[in-house]
Amino acid sequence: MASMTAWIKRLENWSKPLLMVTSLGLVAVIGFVDFFTGYAIFFSAFYLVPVALAAWFVGNVFGNAVSMLSVAVWLVGDFAAGAHYPSLFVPIWNGAIALTVYFVVVKTLASLRSSQKKLEARVCQRTAALTSEIQERTRLEKELLEISEREQRQIGHDLHDSLGQHLTATAFASQVLNAELENKSLPQSAAAKNLVKLVEEAIVLTRTFARGLHPVEITGEGLMDGFQELARNTSGRFKVSCEFECPEPVPLHDAVSSTHLYRIAQEAITNAVKHGKARHISIGLEKINGTIILTVTDDGVGLSKNARNGQGLGLRIMAYRANMIGATFNIERLPESGTRVTCKLPSIGVATSEIHDAKN
Hints:
This protein has 360 residues and is α+β, with helices and mostly antiparallel strands. The chain is built from eleven helices and five strands. The protein folds into two domains: 2-132, no CATH class; 216-360, Histidine kinase-like ATPase, C-terminal domain (Heat Shock Protein 90). A five-stranded mixed β-sheet has the order 1-2-3-5-4. Helix 2 runs parallel beside helix 4 and helix 3 (48-57) packs antiparallel against helix 4.
């Protein structure tokens, strides 16, 4: 079946004149063999090959013409081979029956061919519509992701500049109040001092949140600085041990890829702390054979059931981010305990920004 399909595919690449000559040539060859085998051997079934070839690849009209030619060659060959009939009605009847069969075959094949072409056209239309829909969906997803990144940066900027400055002014006013109360030796000075401490802690938290929403410049070697600060903020915010390991500098000058790698690491750390109950997290960044490899390893309880089934929202987001920059994403449960998230980004010969643009 596979070989026959391959033959049909090959014949479809032939030109119509070549197919017509082939059909007529087959009629001639079969007629020649029919003549030399004698009229006693029934050979009319073999003429179905050129008839089918003509009907399927050339058309209905040519198929009928080959059918009539086949019947004529068959009858002439039998007469030339010495066939004798009781009356002229016998060969006419036999020829009419054979011609009717050929015409039915031609009509059936022509109908099947027409249905096949309509089906192929419909498949092409639906494929084009589906491709267009996928491209539109990818574009919308990209825009939503960009809007999300832009909103996060704006919130981080507002936290750092607006709320941060306001808290700094509040801390300064509280320090002035605390100094005045201490100068007057009033007992409320202890409460004022505690207020200053709380406001300063709020400033630190605000800056931490702002850096998480709007990280430092992470293109070039800034990506390593961003991971270093992410590890430091994670240790301070979640009270876990988080370290960044980068044996050699790994510069990445594409802002889109850098941002996605940073967000993947950020999401992996959040999952490790919130769901994995990890106490130690390691962020690794290295470049091997032109491929940038980001790993986030933790010692938590491992993947949840939903994560193993690919139902976790965070995992889908990380995988989507990796796909957006042409990277491969993998998450695995370690033999003893813990989880490792791996993202591999090829960087030889193709700029990651070009990969990103090509996907859209």
